[in-house]
Amino acid sequence: MHGRAGEEEEEVLSVDGDWSIRPCARFYSMEGEILRLPEIVEIKKKYKCYLYVDEAHSIGALGKSGRGVCEYWGVNPADVDVLMGTFTKSFAAVGGYVAGSKVHFQ
Ligand SMILES: Cc1ncc(COP(=O)(O)O)c(C=O)c1O
């Protein structure tokens, strides 16, 4: 886990001006910290933000069957607008994926 409760919401509210894209990488790094995805999804719904989650460090490593941070928390992947990951870390392969609903990719 990372930081204190409510930190993510303060982060979203602290953005001035155009906040159409707000990276939240600081909440999810290589030190084993785990994004509090349920809270982020709540914030996303409350402020009508888009949520893009990079699972480069979690796919294959988190969740009962390695499906990543959504599985770890029991969050519906449909609540994440764009989910991406790489095959170069846990899977020791090449390539990656970007997934989301059709409307976000048109
Ligand atoms: C958070 C994060 N996203 C994406 C990537 C990109 O992965 P790749 O090296 O397979 O292109 C990396 C690579 O280190 C990463 O750390």
This entry's quaternary arrangement is single chain
Helix/strand class? alpha+beta
Mean pLDDT equals 82
For the sheet with most strands, the description reads:
3 strands, mixed
SSE run: HHEHEEH
Q: Unreliable stretches, pLDDT < 50, 5 or more residues? A: none
Strand order, largest beta sheet = 1-2-3
Figure out the total of helices: 4
Q: What global shape is seen?
A: globular
Distinct small-molecule ligands in the complex: pyridoxal-5'-phosphate
Write down how many β-strands occur, each being a DSSP E stretch of 2 or more residues: 3
Helix content: 25-40%
Rg computed from alpha carbons, rounded to a whole number of angstroms: 14 Å
| Beta-strand content | 5-15%
What is the terminal separation in angstroms? 34 Å
Note the main attributes of this structure.
106 residues; 4 helices; globular; 3-stranded mixed sheet; binds pyridoxal-5'-phosphate; 25% helix; alpha+beta
SSE map:
Layout: H1 7-13, H2 37-47, E1 52-54, H3 69-73, E2 82-86, E3 96-100, H4 102-105
Parallel strand pairs: 1-2
Antiparallel strand pairs: 2-3
The structure holds pyridoxal-5'-phosphate (PLP).
Overall description:
The longest helix has 11 residues. β1, α3 and β2 form a beta-alpha-beta unit. This protein has 106 residues and is an alpha+beta fold. Helices cover 25% and strands 12% of the residues. The chain has a three-stranded mixed beta sheet. The model has no long low-confidence stretch (mean pLDDT 82). It binds pyridoxal-5'-phosphate.
